[in-house]
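Entry details:
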Amino acid sequence: NNTIFLDNRGVSVSSDGISLNNSNNNTLTRNNATSVSGNGIIINASSHNVLINNNGTSDSGVGINVVVSSNDTLENNTGTSSSSEGILLVSTANSTLRTNNGTSDSGIGIRLSGAANNTLIGNNGTSNGDAGLSVQGGSDNSTLIDNSGVSTLNTGLAVDSSTNVTLINNTGSSSINSGIELGTVTYSSVTNNTAT
């Protein structure tokens, strides 16, 4: 608890570059983490952590992965993956993502799955093969403001199987698919978004 990780470099072939498990109230700043088959950075079963200006990169894993966690803040981070998500939140609640960049060659740039009550502001999700930014699988009560989802071969910004989602001033862009796509979405608000 209350640990500051500053200017570190984590490199792994088969494990995670940087991993926080059952760890709370930590601050990670300006770290670079790289993995071949694991996650660049993973936050698991943890809460009240702050990640600022970090880089998480993986070939086959997730760039920055936040799993079963809560009340975390991610700001100005970059998550990059060749085949999985750039940035992924799974079963994570009450967290804020601000001005992060998630990029993937064939996976989703930024993805929320079963992640409720989260706020995304000014993030950029980019993918060559899947959705740029995706909110799905019970990511209820999510708020997206001023985000951008860009995809070459899929939907720019996709929202599916979620309730009470608020979208304001977001941009979704795709070369051959929908810029913004809403699937099974109920009791939601969509205001001043742009699809190209």
Notes: The two ends are 45 Å apart (CA to CA). The mean pLDDT is 95.
